[in-house]
Amino acid sequence: RIAEIAALAAAHGTRMHLDAARLLLAPPALDRKAYVAPFETVYVSLYKYLGAPFGAVLAGPAATIARA
Q1: 58 Cβ partners below 8 Å, 6+ apart?
Q2: Taking a C-beta distance cutoff of 8 angstroms, is the pair 6, 17 a contact?
Q3: Cα torsion 7, 28, 43, 22: sign
Q4: β partners of residue 45
Q5: Which residue in 9, 62, 64, 68 could disulfide with 14, CB within 3.0 to 4.6 Å?
Q6: What is this structure's pTM?
Q7: Considering Cα of 4, then 15, then 52, then 62, what sign does the dihedral take?
């Protein structure tokens, strides 16, 4: 279903973002690279499941991250 949504978004020039906090809880067999591939940016909170007092990681193309 995500592939369909990504194709529709791309056809309209819209980018997709994934809040991937629960990605860290995914089973080891999950292909994480394939899972996040349709999204331009991916956000992972460091405090929700890693126990960090604060922080996050935002991944994506260098130009997009520079603007963020």
Answers
A1: 41, 42, 43, 65, 68
A2: no
A3: positive
A4: 56
A5: 9
A6: 0.82
A7: positive
Q: β-pairing, 56-59 with 17-19?
A: unpaired
How is 2-67 classified by DSSP, letter by letter?
Answer: HHHHHHHHHHTT---EEE-GGGGGS-TTS-HHHHHTT-SEEEEESHHHH--SS-EEEES-HHHHHH
Counting residues of the chain whose pLDDT is more than 90, the rounded percentage is 79
User: Which residues pair with residue 41 across a beta bridge?
Assistant: 17
- What is the C-alpha separation between 68 and 26, in angstroms, rounded? 27
The answer to whether residue 47 scores a pLDDT higher than 90 is no
Cα–chain center distance at 20:
5
User: Which tokens go with 17?
Assistant: 């973002």
**Residue 59, burial from CB neighbour count under 10 angstroms (0-12, 13-18, 19+):** middle
pLDDT-derived band at 22 (thresholds 50, 70, 90) equals confident
